[in-house]
């Protein structure tokens, strides 16, 4: 049984999640993990998982002759340089979103990957969510006819700390980039024009960094469909991730996931628990699936299902959405070229 | 346009509801209303509805030559004598449930009706409920295949006053008689055997009158299906009226009705309002429909859909259920004959 | 017991609905009904309801000395002249939406009403819907904190005939005017700016009249909240009328109403019936309630809860929404003045 | 970090599931696996999980000096002898349900365990289900007041093969034993009396072995509450596992789990997918949790939460339920002693 050898670059929370999911695949083996802050804690973690090499230097991974593929889970500003080097070394790449904050750089990364003939999968984990996948199946198999409207609700249970807000790239690149990808995933069409209404309603700190915490983005797709995404940095009741696709023959919706189905009825009314807390709970299985599929795809020598172009398209929508808000006008994606 | 002339015997809450529903039918007219406690209040009520005759004496209605049909909404002990007299006078009859507390008397009433060739509809209003009708349609059209299990939940928002408990005839005849009829309605089969577990869990006053306030009745139907009804005199969250029919090809359930679909999500969880309060709210439309259908049936000269036999069968099940509880053993309905 | 006397102007479907709901109020009496096409059919209808006068001439109603109030249910172009005349005659007015297609005319009507000191209630029946009322209660009592987002879904089961489309005033004035009022009703704030994306996706006939059949309108409210309405002339599964209000402490949603709660489970999946067919089914009780409340308000000598200003505001939003679509840019309502 | 050493006896489907869940615990290690049919396939499976010993002889595990605890996943008739031997060897025991088909034998096993001072956890995995745990929390924290009614629905997606039916011990011991345990788990009280209605409605093969495929069992608890379990060997729509507890202050229900939340609305109605297919899907996380908790309990030197007494009580209810059906009468559990 052939085994693929992996290296993990960046061992923060998401890097460790990918590592544990990799280990669950019988044909995957992790040879090395790198992190700028590697130390005894990471060494213990690696030892318990049978990972031989722990290093602060990602070059050690990129140059390791036996490593077939790398997971890039470091900070966004390192993504493009790491992708380029990994591609040069002929290694397949799984990279977290966004590929970069700069579309030119993203394009360079994609070009490098293309030239090297390696695979690049982007971490749009929500495409692997059981609910959204089922919605897309209904859309794809014609159950709702031609798509007319796409609606996405995207609300976090609470805002990140100020230190993160400062470097996040803003709500469009940091948070809604997932929703822009979801819009493409569900519509099967490209976004041509966007219009953004944004506000600072939750915490003035967002305004201090030129960011907003609440936004509605309207989309116009190449196939004529319209879309709308509403986004908030704070939903008091927890993580709110729903979609709806409406078409000529009907609609399909996906509601939130909940920790249980218990319903309490008393003289005060009918009550149930809040949705699963946040992305780690909601997308737990999706993280597993995106990793398993990445491995399976490489083993089969096929092309990944979520690639650099998907990352690039979502980043362009994010950039147009921000520009629309800044200039309070609809922005065509063609303007960006 | 032909008009049917009606008399209302017993002008309590339910009598007035039937009267108002009668008036809504363009081919129905109420000529008279009788009540033991008729007085100025009832006269004003009757005047506002254009009802000419208000009397304490039901004979005035029974003997009125122009009246085609009567609604018997007086106390249960008066049902059988009134049915007999109305039948003798050739009047069609709508009678509230139960027909009587005594199966022999019920049989006499049915015989009188049969001999006179008039129609007798029994007030099993739940057969006209939008949810239960839809469940039965699914059963009847074969959507769930052969029926294996019937489950009925029947819980009131609160117990009646002691004065009522005393003369109610007990939980089986007063409250569950509706459920016994529902079991027959949904199964399309007759009950052959019952077993009852009953308890006094809500208020000791029930025990003082040899009654219970909580019961589970298991049913065995002639077609082999099994059934179970759970019943409580008090659900803190309100009126709880649900059914489920399970068969070889699937199941069909009916949930409660609610005053609205609003769902509130906060950090405390997900909340919605309690079900519609009680039978007047839940079965409001069903009361209208049973009256309208009674009139329509008479106008067409057809046989009513819920007749004396339906009343008789439900009463026999009630009697068997009570006997089962008293002797703590399964009771066959054939024992009652 | 004091009785208010009413006249109905325009005896189409909605006029007859209002008439029947009026009759149900013990303190309301209809003296006359007028319709351009009055004939034997209307006379029979009026006779069965005890309405003495049937006429083709609305003047007969407007000049009738005993009539306290009129229902204006004729075509939109007649609303303003009729309101003016009724006001001059000191009659209270219930008028269907929109008051007019022209904001200046609407303003003249409001002025006439104000000068005459009569009441003018506008037929925004959805404010009386059990679901939307409950949503608003939650918003008003602070359950969701400060309002951040308002989302309204508004989809008809099918498009009107071409003859109607031609004179409808377009999707914004004809259909979404209800949603614009709902946005104001739920937010408790005024709309300051709108942006519209519209498309012809259902039937090219809409495009022939400069209209669209699918639209997304983004709203910005004076209190900082954002809103979005998605609208379609045809939902294959029926009338789709849902709202959501999201705020600092949570959200409240209202789902559709259904004809029953029956759920069928088979090897093919879980199935239930479509929502209530269209506005007559969904808003049946709301029509009753708006009429009853109009009567009660007049009897108490109070000001109506949905007045001319509400009509005017909704019409302005509709006009701005249309302009936004035509010029593909956000439009401030202040531009309209 | 202390590690517990485990042996697995019986490497069928459930044995392998427990093994994989054990491996996920950082303080658990499997030293050996035994199976009557051990061969190359099992050896490969064991090798991939780092399990050193593969044997046909369970004695090799029971006598292994380093093994701290065993999982007994072999056929039911071997449970008691294996428990006795394991206890004699001072090993802790996790045993699948039922402990045996014979209450005397079960008692002997429990006595052996008690004498040896080892822990015995019984595989009532449903106690670890997220839904049922939440229901019990509501019951335990008083949210529904005193318990009046307990309702359990237990339906498999399809019957087992005849070969299994023959040796299954019948529906009460094989299938409903889980429900009898659930009844005790939810009520926090002991069952005192049972009454069973059973039928062969799905497949005559059940009747050939003196078994039924459909049953309703009514329960009376020591604390006065009543209960009812309905059970079917075949639900066309899949695995149906729901509970409801009703009390003086309200009720709490748990619905099924579904593979996704997608809802499709078309002109045919509203549709969603069937529940999770069967116990492996529905109770996947529960299997993980029961194993993890078993390990944690042993590490802490505490008593397990589901012990031999729980197995014994459920078996007694199963025996009483069968006797009740055979004799068509209510059976008191005290009769069995």
TrEMBL record, chains A, B, C, D:
Record EC number: 1.1.1.18
InterPro entries given in the database record: Gfo/Idh/MocA-like_OxRdtase_N, GFO_IDH_MocA-like_dom, Myo_inos_IolG, NAD(P)-bd_dom_sf
Residue ranges of domain GFO/IDH/MocA-like oxidoreductase in the record: 132-252
Top-level taxon of the source organism: Bacteria
The entry's keywords: Oxidoreductase
Keyword Oxidoreductase annotated: yes
Sample GO molecular function, one term: inositol 2-dehydrogenase (NAD+) activity
Enzyme class: oxidoreductase
Domain Gfo/Idh/MocA-like oxidoreductase N-terminal: 4-124
UniProt-listed Pfam families: GFO_IDH_MocA, GFO_IDH_MocA_C3
Family from the record: Belongs to the Gfo/Idh/MocA family.
NCBIfam families named in the record: myo_inos_iolG (TIGR04380)
Name of this protein: Inositol 2-dehydrogenase
Lineage: Bacteria, Bacillati, Bacillota, Bacilli, Bacillales
